[in-house]
Every structure is written in structure tokens, then in C-alpha cells.
Write a structure and sequence with these properties.
single chain; mainly alpha
Length: 125
């Protein structure tokens, strides 16, 4: 019961995966736009930008996976069955875990979708 105490519950974990997706999105497109506007020449390689976006993607997906795992552990706490809709601290704990897990999955898909820019673009022009 100590894990489900009301004073220990927080919504910050729920928002962490979408924040990682947003940070990945911004870093990827800011990196590509600065590279193309300030550094690149008409025939220059896009490889360094591609590697930076791959690194951003790996870091973001690792963070989202960790947050999703924490959400799964919260969701599977105890032996209650679905749906978690009772007005108890344990069911609120499980519901927040399930919501965190679902948002982590959605954020992972969004990160992969945003990272597809490295597949489709070969240069800036």
C-alpha cells in the first residue's frame, strides 16, 4: 500500500513521454534547418545531420521505453482485474500507470515517424 499512497502520486510521469517526443521533434528539425540554412552547400552531404537525428532518436526511444516500463509496473500493481475504475487509491495508481504506458507507446510511434526524415531526404536542396 505504501506505493499507492495518495501523496506519492504524481502526473509528471504521465507527461514525460510526450515531452521527450516534443524535444526529439524540435531537436531534429532545428538541427536540420540550421544545417541546411547555415552550413550546407548545394551538393554537401546530409550524413552528419542524419547521424545526429539517429542519436536523438535512440536517446528518445530509450527514455520512452523506461517511462513505459515504469507505467507498466504501475499498471500491473496488485491483483485487480480490468477496468481500473473504482474510486480507490490502488485503481487510480493502476489507471495512471496504464495511461502512462499508452502515452509512451504513442510517443514512440511519433518519434519513429519524425525520424523518418533521415530516410526520405538525401540533401538540403
Amino acid at each position: 500500500m505504501k506505493e499507492t499512497a495518495e501523496k506519492r502520486q504524481s502526473l509528471w510521469l504521465l507527461t514525460a513521454s510526450p515531452v521527450l517526443w516534443a524535444a526529439h521533434f524540435l531537436l531534429s528539425y532545428i538541427t536540420a534547418s540550421i544545417w541546411c540554412a547555415k552550413v550546407a552547400h548545394p551538393n554537401s552531404s546530409f550524413a552528419s545531420v542524419r547521424m545526429a537525428i539517429v542519436a536523438y532518436t535512440v536517446v528518445a526511444l530509450a527514455g520512452i521505453a523506461i517511462i513505459g516500463w515504469i507505467g507498466y509496473r504501475k499498471h500491473s500493481y496488485g491483483a485487480a482485474s480490468l477496468p481500473h475504475d473504482d474510486d480507490t487509491p490502488e485503481d487510480r495508481h493502476r489507471f495512471l500507470g496504464f495511461s502512462t504506458l499508452l502515452l509512451s507507446g504513442l510517443s514512440a510511434v511519433a518519434v519513429i515517424y519524425a525520424a523518418l526524415v533521415v530516410v526520405f531526404f538525401r540533401n538540403c536542396y
